[in-house]
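Allow me, if you will, to draw on your knowledge of protein folds for a short while. The matter concerns a single protein, recorded as an amino acid sequence and a row of backbone structure tokens. Could you please explain, in whatever detail you think fit, how the structure tokens follow from the sequence? I remain grateful for any guidance, and I place the record below:

…
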Amino acid sequence: MESKNIVFPQRGEVALLSQPIDPPGPREIQCRAEVSLISIGTELRCLHGRPQEGTSWSGWVKYPFLPGYSMAATVVAVGADVTEYQVGDRVAAFQEHTQFFNEPVDNNKFLHKIPDGIAFEEAAWMGIGGCITQTCARRSELHLGESVGIIGLGMLGQMITQYIRLMGADEIIAIDANASRLEMARRHGADHTLCMYAQDAIAEVRRLTGGRMLDVVYDVTGLPQVLASACQMARKQGRIMVSGDTTRTEAQAVGPNFLKDSLNIYATHADNGADERYWNKLRMADLFYRCILRGRMEVKSMNTAWFSPAEAPEVYRWLHEDKPDAMGVLFDWTKL
């Protein structure tokens, strides 16, 4: 049996390749992809970036490279010792853009059934919305009534906006140079939107807060130059949450008042939750789904473009060169 998989054979090159896949092992399930979500910033860095040696990027991205990590699929076969799943179950998995894949059922990293009432195109957001951004929101330890700023209103920034509104933020300032992203952020709960670059927003944050500045600033850009600006938006002893990973850490700086203002900088990653003993990935995914089912947050409106995986080379070129206002860009595997 063969699976058609999206592959980066080398830097700057995208292909849809047929690759063999074995039957599922005794404690594995075999799944057929339905919908997978492109993590635009991450995948473009994997495709075109030249990461600094020693960073997580340089150790992770080795060509040929399989991109993607947020998949909604259907179980098509089960191993001999599997009782937890059956053919026809809908599942979400931390999985690359692959047509068929085998997943161990004992893997707590990311595999679970999609609950009734959740569409595939919503479940495809689980990697970003159910884990990465929820981890960031939890680790910030936001307190009721605090004022926050979010720099970068892409996919992660939109989800963080929704989470911190649920957590009781009093005032949310969204900062991005893209006006359409800011309009979406306002629908998701932002109180103020600043259509400008981070370094230009410092004075506006000071004006909006009456000089008090922000309790928490989320840097979700992955751009090395933004951290210094984020630090200057924080109040004394404020918290800066860095959720967008840069490939050029040597270019990051903490700004002129980092030590004087006793600032706290926290880095967050999907593999390091706030408390893995309780809020592990499966529990966070369950909460993500419940929030959608109860109308407390939404992702459907963020799905802005759908493509067949056969169009992958053109899709990545479009995202890289044309830089559209796209947010949720999905591969529909039923189109193959």
User: Anything to note?
Assistant: The chain has ten helices and 15 strands. Residues 126-139 form the longest helix (14 residues).
